[in-house]
Amino acid sequence: MTESTQNSPPKPRPQEVTIPTIPIEYVSDEDMAIIEAAYAATRSSLSSSISSSICSTSSRFQTNTRSIQSITLLSKRGLNGSSELDIEDSGHLKNTQKRSRVAQPFLHRFRRKRGLSVTDITDTEWCEKQMEFTLRFGKRKISKAMKAGRARHVKLEEEVFKKLKVRVQSVEDTWALKFIDFITGANQLLFEGLTRELPLIGFVEGVWVVGVIDEVRMTENGSDRNSILVDTKTRARHSLPAEPQRRKGRLQLMCYKYLWDTLVADSFPSRLFFDFFSLNHNSILSENIREKAANSGFPAKTLNDMIGYYRNTYRMLPPAQDQLLLRYELQKDQSVLGEDQFAYDPDWLKKQIRGSLEFWLGERDASYTPEEERWKCRHCQFRSICPGNPNPNSPRSSSSSDDSSPSS
Ligand code: SF4
């Protein structure tokens, strides 16, 4: 990670395409924000293996990897290292107890015919119990700060994309539109060296996972082509996020690389895809969608046709580079606060995905965020009912908009 306090955008790197506007994400103060104060108060007690340092050399990648592995182990512990408490342990939730014992896995109850999103995986890394509460009781209402952030996001996005509304009439249309977006984005990448907001879908460990990657850059060196995956976070304050937020960002990007590499290796089981999402691959797409596809150069009439064009496109793409890039920008002027370039760690990623799927598939109860990170509880919507919160009676800490929150 490198730090910069300059107020002007960074110079493009060699072989990088100049970017007219950086993709911006805005904070949900639910997920990612507000953390600095609590983190600052507790980081002195964190394990030394949890690196909060920011550096810019290759040794940083090793540090990051060690941090990630340490945290992974911590995050799977229950309270005091003992067996985990559960929502049923709360006296407030007796009615939930009976339901939870007979309930279907969360994946089937809440993500049926939708698949998991990358955010579903990264949110469980943050705190599985919080995800469980959110699924059961819902998220709190959107705050004014979140609305403002989203409005600004839309405004900035419209400076780069000419958004056209397309009416969809079926779930097949909806998927066809995603494939059109992918094909046009991939063509933009191949011809212009850069694309943004690219939808990804992949079959991971027997589960469909979807996501939208912020940005992909293509570099060429002779006949060698490289795809570089980039994610940009914005910050309300002139500071970099705490290590757990950075770790979450790294996990997110690694998930995208996994999806990307799986896809370009020609691993898209279309029959399973049609079955899982209950799609009729031969039904005729609506006129709007057929017109949009034809105007984009691929006259698909059915979803099956669309998959054919999709396949022809992703086969042309190279695997993603092992080095992944997280960028942090200040919201008010888009100046670069820092960059975290780190190495893809497939072993760590698989453990994370597998651990998350254990939760989603109901193979075990949700775990609490590790003890070293219980400062998260001060800002948690469910702090008053969660048995994992060491101070359930303390008031919720004030919140402020900060780091951006992934939503794909
Ligand atoms: S109170 Fe703490 S342990 Fe409980 S759900 Fe919230 S963050 Fe997780």
UniProtKB/TrEMBL annotation:
<dbReference type="Pfam" id="PF09810">
    <property type="entry name" value="Exo5"/>
</dbReference>
<comment type="similarity">
    <text>Belongs to the EXO5 family.</text>
</comment>
<dbReference type="GO" id="GO:0036297">
    <property type="term" value="P:interstrand cross-link repair"/>
</dbReference>
<dbReference type="InterPro" id="IPR019190">
    <property type="entry name" value="EXOV"/>
</dbReference>
<feature type="compositionally biased region" description="Low complexity">
    <location>
        <begin position="394"/>
        <end position="408"/>
    </location>
</feature>
<dbReference type="GO" id="GO:0045145">
    <property type="term" value="F:single-stranded DNA 5'-3' DNA exonuclease activity"/>
</dbReference>
<dbReference type="InterPro" id="IPR011604">
    <property type="entry name" value="PDDEXK-like_dom_sf"/>
</dbReference>
<feature type="region of interest" description="Disordered">
    <location>
        <begin position="386"/>
        <end position="408"/>
    </location>
</feature>
<dbReference type="GO" id="GO:0005634">
    <property type="term" value="C:nucleus"/>
</dbReference>
<protein>
    <submittedName>
        <fullName>Exonuclease V, chloroplastic-like</fullName>
    </submittedName>
</protein>
